[in-house]
Hints:
Keywords: Cell membrane, Membrane, Transmembrane, Transmembrane helix, Transport. It is a multi-pass membrane protein. The chain is built from 14 helices and four strands. The protein is mainly alpha-helical. The chain has a domain at 94-275 and 288-310: MetI-like fold (Orthogonal Bundle). The chain is globular, with a radius of gyration of 28 Å.
Amino acid sequence: xxxxxxxxxxxxxxxxxxxxxxxxxxxxxxxxxxxxxxxxxxxxxxxxxxxxxxxxxxxxxxxxxxxxxxxxxxxxxxxxxxxxxxxxxxxxxxxxxxxxxxxxxxxxxxxxxxxxxxxxxxxxxxxxxxxxxxxxxxxxxxxxxxxxxxxxxxxxxxxxxxxxxxxxxxxxxxxxxxxxxxxxxxxxxxxxxxxxxxxxxxxxxxxxxxxxxxxxxxxxxxxxxxxxxxxxxxxxxxxxxxxxxxxxxxxxxxxxxxxxxxxxxxxxxxxxxxxxxxxxxxxxxxxxxxxxxxxxxxxxxxxxxxxxxxxxxxxxxx
Length: 318
């Protein structure tokens, strides 16, 4: 290998070979090392989605659960149409109504969580740094307990002999029927997903220099103007992230409507579970799951377009 002498330093300069030019940056692993991890991740993330999509275009066996590997779009047709014994097909709004009820439930949960979470996150962000850490810890404490345990705790609170009705009896008011109602299901969802709205908004506001708000006050701006022109634009990425983190699981929730609502209101999560369980109609249950995936995918695309046009980075993480 030829060398040359550097005119300024007098050091022999050795030209880099091809292997040296392709030297990896520090901390990076070669592809063969990460291939097993990628395969495992694909197996447990993409794999189930592929199975559900394949099952949604398969035929239903004459008896029992499972699928017959014959391509058909009947599960998707059954979502909007029904065929009677005479072979006549007509529009069937039943499943579409269930879909709409689920959207309404997810929308109400998201709206209430947003209204409650924004002032909480703003208040936490204006505290001292040490107190902020304590308050964020308190927000995350519910995650330390299993969801079923927390839901059963709400059942004890809302039942006929629970804390609320006991308090009403003490003041001479008649007891209320709270458990196994749509209201109980909605309360359970709001309680479950409220931290998912608080944390992203707090993350957006934590880095905000509130001296800018004070400067706006000094320049004569009103509180509503400061909130609309200064604070809200900074909190928008956190709000959008929180809306997605709350709406997506609330839309397809299953535990709260069953345990707290008593299954009195049929929602998309309960419908999918019944199709895989009682009805043994796996293709239709898979088709309903794919419909949910499509709706959530459209929401993610909309958020990505908003992020690109507004120039604000939106991260769906806590």
